User: Fold these one by one.
Assistant:
Number 1:
Amino acid sequence: MGSGHEKQTAFRGRRIACYAARVGPDYRKPATWALGTSVAGRYRLEALLGAGGFGAVFRAFDLHTQTPVAIKLLTRSAMLHPDAVPRFHREARLAMSFRHPSTVRVFDSGDAGEGTPYITFELLEGVSVEERLAAGPIPVEEAVAIASAVLG
């Protein structure tokens, strides 16, 4: 994913929720989005979970369903590319059509304002792969369980 400082975040040891790349402080922040902001009149941003060259993923609260969700918004840098918005919409359509027990469920997509598209999906809590690996080697039984969950 680019910088070599990628962070793959997995929750419950079976689902990959987002990718994050560590880069300069403002370069990869989403355009005009701050914590507490309401997106599309429905999702309140609560915490930044990760950011990469294409998007930023936030923990958000769905005001309609009263449940936590993850929401992905395009970054400022991505909005500079003419194919970014169509590509993001393609990603949303594909993600919404894909169903597998080891993937995150996608709930919604639309325009967040200022021409910025968003995708909301299931928020999964847990430790990241980076955190799990930092804790030491993964025992064979756990590795097999993780692989089985991913392969379905």
Number 2:
Amino acid sequence: MSQALLDLGAHVKSSMTNAIEGVSVAHGELTIAARADQIATVVTFLRDDPRCRVVYNAIDTSAFAAMPDRVVLRRELDLPIDERVIIHVGRMTEAKNHRRMIRMFEAHHRQRGGSRLVLVGREDDAISSELRRSIRQLGLGDAVRLLGDRDD
């Protein structure tokens, strides 16, 4: 694979390991890795490969240097100042399993109370409609916020 870049990211890490880490690597990934010219990975056992480069922070964090005031932001989002806020950032897709997240939050909220779940990211109409219905049925209307896609 000339000029190939293999990205073995976190999704692969969760499904593979080597003997040292106590996980088995899927045969297909190893075959591709053997032929790749470059490898970008979070999988530790490949980091000694000379083709591998570790990207410690692929996100430009300078945009987050001046964080908004916590109180102002909570007011803007109608979130109580004294409650725990759990935030998920990511588009709504089947793979991200927002349904399960709502069920897990419901169990957490029932046991602990005083918490909010905020979902941020591009919505899928079918998934978000189903989630909103589940949120209502579980009595979480005041505890869960779907903010949609945001640029802040």
Number 3:
Amino acid sequence: MFPRDKDLCTKQPIELKLRTNLSIPAKEAEFKLRIPGHEVFSTKLESEVRDRITEHMKTLTQLSTDAIKIEIESNDVLTLDLVDLPGLYTIHRDHNDEENNKCVKNYIQQRDVGAIVVVLSSNNDIFLDNAIKMIQELSVEKRNCCIAVFTKP
């Protein structure tokens, strides 16, 4: 569903809403895509959603707090909301790092969060990781909602 391109950087939150809809035949889904500043796009093809998001991401020059919203209705999904936030980098990548950190922190602090999943590369020193530092600054209540997932590079 989410665009994958080594030259593509997520510069705004993506909200994914899964909704159970028993009127849709099994193994089928309906997708609704809301990109800020564009009309709502509806389709039954996941690839069309991914292509539109990819094209939109290529046009972004700076961070945005306006989320891209994807709603998927299907007979065989649980009702669940997920938010993919712009990544936090351990190593300085560009001048937007500070803005990126601020965007992520504001998004987390402003919302009622059930769980925060932090994806960390297993080849980095976690004590230097910006995501870990940010979690340590959260309230105890929000820190207790954090799950760390370590990935193999």
